[in-house]
Every structure is written in C-alpha cells, then in structure tokens.
Design goal:
Blueprint: H1 2-11, H2 15-31, H3 35-62, H4 86-90
Length: about 120
C-alpha cells in the first residue's frame, strides 16, 4: 500500500513527500499520530523542498565558496565602523533624484465630496 502511495506522490510531482512518507507512516504508528498530523508533516516537508532548492540556487549564483550561517560568523574580526552622520545628511530633508530637497511642508488632507478648499489657493 505504501508503495502505491509513493507512486502516486511521484506522479503528482511531490518528490519531497514521496521521500519522507515512509518515515512519517512509521512515526505515526509509533507515536499514534492522527491522519491530519501525518498529512501536515508530509506536506510541510514537501514545502521545504523548493525553498531549500531556491536557497541553494541563490548561493550558487552568488558564487560563495561555501554556505555559512550567522552562528558561524566571527564578530571579533570586524573593522571599526564610524557612526553615521545623519545630522548632516538629513538636516534639510532627503535629496530627491532631481537633486532638490524634499519639502517638509505638511500637505492638507484630501477634500471630502462637496467641500470647498480653504486658504489662498481657493480662488484659482
């Protein structure tokens, strides 16, 4: 019966599920898992397959010599980093692509239907 299940999963192109279904069935028998728990476990493992493949593909494309995790990073050998000088950069607002500074003036909220604009621009 489980061989038929593996064949069906393979035909449905669920190779990750087909690879782990025997382990999940054995675990279900030992731990008395419900059908829903087994199905969820098998499907979660199937979901992990394309995620892992995409990560591996990105690592190969990046050209890293090996995959490393944050736990493996040695923070002791880092160069000193100067604090950012935000006050000089943001004193007059961010620079737009055109080279002009963004205005810090507040814009008035949109008008509701039937209301008239107020202020000096209402005469236009």
């Amino acid at each position: 019966m489980s061989a038929d299940l593996v064949t069906l999963l393979t035909q449905l192109q669920l190779s990750g599920a087909a690879a782990v279904v025997h382990d999940w069935l054995d675990r279900a028998a030992i731990e008395e898992l419900s059908y829903a728990d087994v199905l969820q476990g098998v499907l979660e493992e199937e979901l992990a397959v394309p995620t892992a493949a995409a990560t591996e593909r990105r690592l190969r494309a990046a050209g890293f010599p090996f995959a490393a995790s944050i736990e493996q990073f040695d923070f002791r050998f880092r160069p000193p980093v100067a604090p950012p000088h935000r006050s000089a950069c943001w004193q007059h607002g961010p620079v737009l692509r055109s080279g002009h500074r963004a205005s810090r003036a507040r814009r008035s909220p949109p008008l509701s239907p039937g209301s008239k604009p107020t202020g000096s621009r209402s005469s236009r």
